[in-house]
Amino acid sequence: MSNVKVKAPKKPVKPVIVVIYILLVILAVIYLAPLLWMLSVSLKDNAGVMSAPFSLPEVFHFENYAVAWTRGGYAYAYASSLIIGFGTAFSVVLLVGLAVYGLYKTDCFFKEFFKSYFVAGLAIPTFAVIVPLFFFFYKINLINTHIGMILIYIGINIPFNFTFMSAFFEGMSKE
């Protein structure tokens, strides 16, 4: 056996492929240019932005991010998002998990009815119930509260999660 390496012949590049790659590069520049400009402007001081908005910063001002974080109230917004997200996720998994486990691990007569009921709940558009929910939550003083948001998100997420978890528990044996 010899160690002769045979090179495969190179295929010619089609002009259509070249045009496609040129268009993709142009699109990448179009999409990335505003992001890079925004990053550049965020690292300038006010005088630098007003004098030359499209140039690179001469001195990088990373303290702009700390100022924006404190003035914009992002700490409170981030904490609110965490509270609402974790509260909703925990509640939905707990409520739906217990309900589906109870339906599928016992011989419940209404199992298929509940499954059909929650699948039908997926067909109801969220926007169809927003206005009545607003007036209801307004009457019970839950507007602009974490509990109000968590309750709405629980109601919106229960049909999908019930359907998803029922498919999971249906595949498990009763043991």
Can you walk through the features of this model?
The chain is built from seven helices and no strands. With 175 residues, the chain is mostly helical. Helix 4 packs parallel to helix 7 and helix 5 crosses helix 7. It is flat, with a radius of gyration of 28 Å. The protein starts with 14 loop residues before the first helix and ends in a 5-residue tail after the last helix. The model has no long low-confidence stretch (mean pLDDT 90).
Oligomer: single chain
Strand content: under 5%
**Spatial extent as radius of gyration:** 28 Å
Helical/strand content category: mainly alpha
Give the helices and strands, then pairings.
Elements: H1 15-42, H2 46-51, H3 63-71, H4 74-105, H5 111-121, H6 130-139, H7 146-170
Helix pairs in contact: 4-7, 5-7
Summarize the structure.
This protein is mainly α and 175 residues long.
Main features:
69% helix, 175 residues, single chain, flat, mainly alpha
